Amino acid sequence: MREPKVTAAAGVAADEATAPTSLEPGNLPRAVQLGGIGLLVALAILAWMITGDRMHGMDAGPGTDLGGLGWFLGVWVVMMAAMMCPSTLPMILTHARIGAGKRARGAAAVPLGTTLFIGGYLLSWTAAGLLGYASFEALRSLEIGFLAWDEAGRFVAAGVLLGAALYQLTPLKDTCLSECRPPLNRLLHSWRPGPVGTVRMGIAHGAWCVGCCWALMAALFALGVMSIGWMALTAALIATEKLLPWKAIATRGVMAVLLALALAVAVSPEDVPSLTLPDSPEAARAMEAMGMEMDDGGESGAAMDESMEDESAPGPASGAP
Predict the structure, then answer these.
(1) pLDDT tens string 248-264
(2) Coil vs helix vs strand at 54
(3) Buried b vs exposed e over 205-226: b needs ≥16 C-beta within 10 Å?
(4) What is the dihedral of CA 215, 217, 223, 229, to 10 degrees?
(5) Which residues lie closer than 8 Å to 74 by C-beta, 6 or more apart?
(6) Measuring CA to CA, which residue among 235, 191, 199, 7 is closest to residue 121?
(7) Best label site of 3, 32, 89, 305, fewest CB within 10 Å?
(8) Helix residue spans in the chain (DSSP H)
(9) Crossing angle between the packed helical segments 247-267 and 228-243, to the nearest 10 degrees
(10) Could you tell me which residues come within 8 angstroms of residue 8 by beta carbon, excluding any fewer than 6 positions away?
């Protein structure tokens, strides 16, 4: 008599374990899915257009001046929206599906929940941008002579690229990348209710993404953070390792690209495509453009006067033709 009772109890437990919960994802209508993907793609394109307009002519290569804090943060947030949108698309769609499942089961859904989730994600990257800005400016304030490009600068840039390549092999990279790949189970287990909980989920996912991609962002600074070309390459590398089904192959492939760039920058930087050398006429013009842009963003009138004097002079102050 005892065995049937145990079997029945086990069956009840199994039924409860497989019963739908309020967090199970719903099936978004195909039109809604396509519309959401189209909207995200449109936002990414718009972010790329704004970034290209704001950064046009400002690539002074490694060590490019970042401008004022307000101007930099504005550009940085738009940059992150442009670069990260493709790789975060699965997570955003999964969040929307879970919200649809909650609504279908009569549970309370957070208004604009997916928007709040994206906002939290960008908050994490904004904090990372602030840290990067502070570190960069602190290093510049030391005025270390050997960091000049015509001394050890190119080897420092190559070292940053090499460090980014080696980070691809670390356990921390593997853990963070795993949290950023196909997201359903992780998002279900970390679900938090309410608007504040939604923002916290976005911040948490953004933090994992920062842990995964910070070295690639450091590599972008080493190559020229104001370069649209290097931004596009970095975004492609991030999407490759987050979206391709073969994680190990993707991470090793990204590492190989970084190693090749490190070697090229150290040995023959003038032959690296799209790399603006800091002591070149192109870099001098970019720094002038940065000065003009900072003035437009609200800097003092003295900067405008200096820029106007530079424009009226026969050539850049550095003596480049």
Answers:
(1) 999 999 999 999 999 99
(2) helix
(3) bbbbbbbbbbbbbbbbbbbbbb
(4) 130
(5) 54
(6) 199
(7) 3
(8) 2-18, 30-55, 69-104, 113-141, 154-167, 171-180, 184-189, 194-223, 228-243, 247-267, 281-296, 301-312
(9) 150
(10) none
Residues in the chain: 321
Distant-in-sequence, close-in-space partners of 1: CB < 8 Å, separation ≥ 6: none
Question: Is the pLDDT reported for residue 232 higher than 60?
Answer: yes
Averaged pLDDT of the chain: 75
**What pTM does this model have?**
0.73
Q: How many CB atoms lie within 10 A of CB 301?
A: 8
Here the tokens at position 263 are 């070697």
Give the three-state DSSP class for 271: helix
The single-letter code of the amino acid at 212 is C
> How far apart are alpha carbons 9 and 31 in whole angstroms?
43
Residue given tokens 């080493």 in the structure block: 222
CA distance linking residue 44 with residue 62, whole number of Å: 26
- The arithmetic mean of pLDDT across residues 13-41, rounded, is 52
pLDDT, tens only, 87-96 = 888 787 777 7
